Amino acid sequence: MQSSRDNHSTLAERFNKDEARVSWHDQTLWWIRQKRDKAAWSLGEEWEGLRSQASQIKAHTLSNLSGYLEEFEANAIANGAIVHWAADAKEHNEIVHKILQDNKVTQLVKSKSMLTEECHLNPYLETHGIDVVDTDLGERIVQLANEAPSHIVLPCIHWKKEEIGELFHKHLATPAGNADPSFLTNAARIHLRDKFLTRRVAITGVNFAIAETGEFVVCTNEGNADMGAHLSDVHIACMGIEKLIPLRRHLGVFLRLLARSATGQPVTTYSSHFRKPRQGQQLHIVLVDNGRSQQLAKEDFRNSLKCIRCGACFNTCPVYRRSGGHSYHTAVAGPIGSILAPNLDMKQYADLPFASTLCGSCTNVCPVKIDIHDQLYKWRQVLTKEGYSPKTKTVAMKTMAATLSKPGLFSFAGKWARRIMRIAPWLVNNKMNPWYKQRNMPAAPKQSFTEWYKTNRNKDKK
Amino acid sequence: MSSRNEILKRVRAAQPTLIPMPADLTSTAAGDVHKFTEVLQGIGGRVVLMEPDEEVPQKLKELFPSANRVVSSIRSLEAFFLHDHAQLDHHSLEDVDIAVIEAQFGVAENGAVWVTEQDTIIRVLPFIAEHLVVLLDKASFVADMHQAYQRVAYDAYGFGVFIAGPSKTADIEQSLVLGAHGPKSMTILVRS
Fold first, then answer.
1. Contacts of residue A59 in chain B, CB cutoff 8 Å?
2. What is the ipTM of this complex?
3. Locate the LUD domain: which residues (chain B) (predicted)?
4. How many domains does chain A have?
5. Do the beta carbons of residue A238 and residue A200 sit within 8 Å?
6. Which domains does chain B have, with CATH numbers?
7. Residue A276, in any domain of the structure
């Protein structure tokens, strides 16, 4: 397990020890990114229009979020749901626990909800003697391994099938050595079907909540949210307050974007619209703030609340693909997680906005046009001003600033650096130099650009 | 209740000046069964076009010769209809081989069909069965999701769902497996 002091680069370094695995992880995610491209391009010119539309609907919603929250609440209550409000993770967990206590229940099934990960609901409930079974296959795998998901859409993307075979052999008594994905999936199906049939409470996440109708939509491919919710006596849906959209017909825009951006599918297998509880069923909706209103107040970072959690920015990110989800040490990893997390705790997540090359690929694939890489850059400025930037970087940046501001010193330092890299490459190609880790230093050019320019300008004159 | 007012107060103070809602995107493309068929096949489902003189029960026997328990939410399918649905424990549908339901329309761009609680009578029915069969009229196709939501914009369902293909997962090394928790196959019977 990681200690609380491990930062992104330490954790990434650990992940990078196994080079073959890093390449495999990198290529798998890039393949998903390519599927996303194909799906997006299949819509031709429509795609960019959809992105703009989604971004504008979200911008509008955020500018009247209080109004839409009240409208949603009123309609949800009229539909027969019970609406709860949680200011933070602690209150969210207490509300869920209270519902379980009121219903005298100690076991439940849960479908994917990054919000409950963010709130650390599972460990909280477990300390209160509640048995929680995650029913998304990938989430069940990491739960059995006592890990957190490493990706918001593909929770066990860092696991090899042989390792899953071993895990299932230990926990589900599958034959040793069987690593066939179909076989293992079927074993999980049988194991989890028993849970669906015997648990009285189901927790689900929420992809979209509609102010106009008081309903919410949950998207899955496996059907686990529906199996849990429809067979339960009590359905608890947990959502961040930024999940609101104004009108039902706006779903047309978001559902066209979500699965195409996430996995390259035209739509998820199930897009389930929960409006009223089933006859005799209790339906609870927990609306959670947990820092979102604070983020809303920050003009530079407000747009991060438009996120629909597709994971496209993860799959395209050259850093995420090579450092793994756990290196971000937060529930939502990747580029979007790196602009969300510092809002919750600037000190603990000060390293994350620096875990980026600022290449801008995340911004280019984002279906709701969040300016992710600009926000990463802005967070760096905020963190540096607040004194939270990493120490080695601060020293390096100060040295750099001093060198760049003095042309004489710059040319002197450059000359010596090139000379050293040629004569004594071991002085830079060693473990003391962070740039040397998992990389080879480039060959040093013989002369600087200034030197080249001077020589060639003189040549022209002759 | 105290958190409610506090959260709303904080949100009200934090939100920027009102940004107008954009005008709706609309589309005029026509939806048809061919595009729908192509897309649904791509995501693991199948479309079977029925001849005018073919009957559903015979077709089912032909497609699923070894099925034991076949149930339906369609009243006209007398032999399969869930007559006892009002008293039925929904968990008891656990061993259903084939669930036959009717959908309101199909969406050509993504192979999804729209189904509400009125169509399934029991919400869990299309999820719990081993195989799902959906009846659809040949005229009931829209081109895309914008048109789909125009159709259902003001419907007062309790539960509604777009279903696009069999239940599936690729969580184990991105290998696609059909039949995660729900049906292992989805067949659309298109009536002319």
1. 19
2. 0.98
3. 92-190
4. 2
5. no
6. 24-191 (3.40.50.10420)
7. yes
Regarding whether A244 and A118 lie in a shared domain, the answer is yes
Residues of chain B with C-beta less than 8 angstroms from the C-beta of A232: none
Q: Domain for residue A359, yes or no?
A: no
Looking at the complex, does the CB of residue A40 fall below 8 Å from at least one CB of chain B?
no
A286 touches chain B (CB under 8 A): no
Chain A residues close to B115, C-beta within 8 Å: none
The dihedral built from the CA positions of residue A334, A340, A342 and A344, taken in this order, carries a sign that is: negative
Provide the domain limits for residue A88. 17-293
Angle between helices A251-262 and A19-41 (to 10 degrees): 140
Instruction: Examine the fold and report which residue of A268, A293, A318 is the final residue of a domain before the chain moves on.
Output: A293
* Nearest C-alpha in A relative to B182: A223
Check which CATH number belongs to the domain holding A211 and give it. 3.40.50.10420
Handedness of CA B160, B164, B166, B167 (dihedral sign): negative
A410 and A277 housed in the same domain: no
Q: Which of A241, A264, A293 is the last residue of a domain?
A: A293
On whether both A276 and A411 belong to a single domain, the answer is: no
CA separation for the pair A344, A347 (Å, rounded): 9
pLDDT tens sequence for chain B (192 residues): 579 999 999 999 999 999 999 999 988 999 889 999 999 999 999 999 999 999 999 999 999 999 999 999 999 999 999 999 999 999 999 999 999 999 999 999 999 999 999 999 999 999 999 999 999 999 999 999 999 999 999 999 999 999 999 999 999 999 999 999 999 999 999 998
